[in-house]
């Protein structure tokens, strides 16, 4: 395969691809020629995404269940005989904002299970196929919230920063096998963001004010485009990095706080 952005002949598994950033990445990978497997908990949105991408597959997956994550990887390998690109995007619905001293063990356990353990299970399951093929791309979705210690979302921040540490370690250990592991921190207009705008218009305005480009990214063209690059041969010398596809928001930190009791 010639070096470049084409993904012809590649097979990608994207978790949480039923909507938002995951759906945008799935569309972008498919547009560049990859065969895409959509691992999504919500059957309706997952099937809808699969139907919009000819040749793709939908595997209903609750990423909080290890056996279901492993099944999604096994299904991909059974259908295509290979797995080249793994995108860990899924994150189960979180808990409401709360002060750190009021957080419970269950808050952290839920966040770590879906935001850290689930990607690890997928990485561990995908590793043998990537190792044996001598080529692999793993893209783990993290967050500016964790990088900049956003207040009142401690459990989410901890899970995402743990995932960044895991990703860098995997990048170091698995580079010898031709596997590149990178972290993508997006800022995108998604259904969740639209709800945020509806319920917290003042905070939503502050979010845009910290963005030098003055807009949230498009899941397909802005976020998916970066994912395509990371998944391609063009990124063969890039591993262990955190890329911010956020219109420059990371330059300004976090200048708003969610309301808490």
From TrEMBL:
Pfam families named in the record: adh_short_C2 (PF13561)
InterPro entries (UniProt xref): NAD(P)-bd_dom_sf, Sc_DH/Rdtase_CS, SDR_fam
SUPFAM superfamilies registered for this protein in UniProt: NAD(P)-binding Rossmann-fold domains
Keywords associated with the record: Oxidoreductase
An example molecular function term from Gene Ontology annotations: oxidoreductase activity, acting on the CH-OH group of donors, NAD or NADP as acceptor
Family in the record: Belongs to the short-chain dehydrogenases/reductases (SDR) family.
Protein name per Swiss-Prot or TrEMBL: SDR family oxidoreductase
